[in-house]
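Q: Please design a sequence for this.
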């Protein structure tokens, strides 16, 4: 009986965390590769874990990117991942296992902050709202998939979750301090959330202006000193990364070079795809509980302010999702409690149907993401099939920009005799004059090279008559070529 009681208490305390963690872990194991958006932190974690104090070997000095980023998040994740990486290296497993370990560690960190927020939901709104919050989060793809991706937005999300939890708890100054740390160190655009929350707290007289100024300035100074001291060492120059990001994106508006969307895109595309059933429910929640508008107004204001920036991506507003899920959970709980009444019974049936549709949408979104890292799968396949013919000289692989952006990182590399080059701006015609053994690129044919195989990737979703009505269409995205001067009679490649 005591064991059963202990197990019941354990599940009551950590059951929801195990559910969310298991889903996030499945996403990592099924799609371990990363894309260009998280490349800086991925390469930084690799270099911290494998090169340690040998800064000259770090990737960012050769490929600095458009703007510098902070190393603080990579240091935190690497510190907790290092024991697992040591075991993986000791056992001789490929480095891709270290990437999985690092992503799982990051997921645990972010979900632990979400746990803190969830506990405050339980205290303020009750167990049932907490349960619906977990259910809605589980049915959504993006939050649990993104929580293991080492993006600056996700590192900031951890602090935003802590801010949300303290906001619900009534620790308003702590909430503002967490938002300031997130703004100064990880994502300067969190200021668009900090501003509305701080203004609302001032207007409702929940905080004192002078006390707020004292706390915020002090926190900002500490955060600025921390990021400058750490990142100036790592970048070998005096730098405050997020200030440069702010200047590049907001003042120069250079982010628009990567594409633009209409001003309503977050509300008409990004949030509906991310929240699914929680999107309409979050609007209903505002009407059903007078405590919710106080929480929702700053979050909606954050999204509205961000909508003015032409370049838009879902990850930019991922910090709004937990609070929107809270509003949706309040609505779902109220509908469920009144399900025996006539009108509410119909609403309950509609919500159940939307739950099922959301689960289906999440499955298709996951399958699309699973097939969205073709170059990672291509390099893995090359390592598995190819037997180095010239061990003394090594096998030299050139990875083009497209492949480096769609699945390949330093965690994908193997030891000698493999060598890798990410040299940029090489025209296709020049490749035949180089000594590369293999090419991993987006071109189906290259002079002087034989195409060994291609790797398909996600292209689009198609609606068709018959069964199944929804089909995921893939097409060849990445091609692997071998130098024709190098003979390989050991393998029969499928060709392209």
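A: Design:
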């Amino acid at each position: 009986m005591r064991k059963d009681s202990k197990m019941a208490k354990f599940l009551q305390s950590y059951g929801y965390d195990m559910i969310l963690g298991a889903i996030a872990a499945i996403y990592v194991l099924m799609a371990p590769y990363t894309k260009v958006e998280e490349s800086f932190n991925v390469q930084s974690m690799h270099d911290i874990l494998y090169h340690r104090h040998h800064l000259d070997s770090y990737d960012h000095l050769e490929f600095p990117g458009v703007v510098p980023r902070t190393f603080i998040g990579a240091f935190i994740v690497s510190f907790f991942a290092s024991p697992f990486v040591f075991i993986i290296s000791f056992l001789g497993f490929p480095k891709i296992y270290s990437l999985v370990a690092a992503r799982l560690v990051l997921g645990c960190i972010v979900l632990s902050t979400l746990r803190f927020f969830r506990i405050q939901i339980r205290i303020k709104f009750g167990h049932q709202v907490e349960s619906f919050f977990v259910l809605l989060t589980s049915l959504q793809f993006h939050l649990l998939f993104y929580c293991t991706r080492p993006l600056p937005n996700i590192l900031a999300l951890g602090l935003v979750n802590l801010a949300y939890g303290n906001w619900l708890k009534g620790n308003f100054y702590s909430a503002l301090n967490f938002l300031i740390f997130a703004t100064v160190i990880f994502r300067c655009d969190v200021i668009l959330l900090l501003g509305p929350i701080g203004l609302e707290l001032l207007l409702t007289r929940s905080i004192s202006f002078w006390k707020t100024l004292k706390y915020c300035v002090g926190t900002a100074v500490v955060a600025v000193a921390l990021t400058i001291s750490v990142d100036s060492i790592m970048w070998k120059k005096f730098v405050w990364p997020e200030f440069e990001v702010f200047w590049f994106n907001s003042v120069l508006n250079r982010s628009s070079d990567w594409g633009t969307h209409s001003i309503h895109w977050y509300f008409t595309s990004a949030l509906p795809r991310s929240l699914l059933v929680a999107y309409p429910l979050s609007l209903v929640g505002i009407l059903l509980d007078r405590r919710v508008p106080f929480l929702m107004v700053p979050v909606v204001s954050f999204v509205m302010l961000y909508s003015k920036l032409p370049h838009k991506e879902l990850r930019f507003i991922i910090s709004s999702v937990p609070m929107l899920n809270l509003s949706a959970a309040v609505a779902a709980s109220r509908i469920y409690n009144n399900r025996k009444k006539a009108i509410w019974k119909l609403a309950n049936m509609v919500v159940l149907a939307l739950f099922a549709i959301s689960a289906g949408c999440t499955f298709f979104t996951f399958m699309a993401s699973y097939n969205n890292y073709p170059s990672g799968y291509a390099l893995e396949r090359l390592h598995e099939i190819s037997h180095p013919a010239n061990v003394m000289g090594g096998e030299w692989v050139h990875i083009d920009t497209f492949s480096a952006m769609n699945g390949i990182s330093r965690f994908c590399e193997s030891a000698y005799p493999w060598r890798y080059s990410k040299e940029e701006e090489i025209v296709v015609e020049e490749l035949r004059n180089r000594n590369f053994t293999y090419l991993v690129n987006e071109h189906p044919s290259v002079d002087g090279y034989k195409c060994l195989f291609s790797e398909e990737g996600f292209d689009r979703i198609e609606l068709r008559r018959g069964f199944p009505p929804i089909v995921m269409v893939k097409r060849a995205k990445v091609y692997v070529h071998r130098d024709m001067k190098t003979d390989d009679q050991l393998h029969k490649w499928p060709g392209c």
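Q: Thanks. Anything notable?
A: The first strand starts at residue 395 and ends at 399. The chain is about 60% helix and 10% strand.
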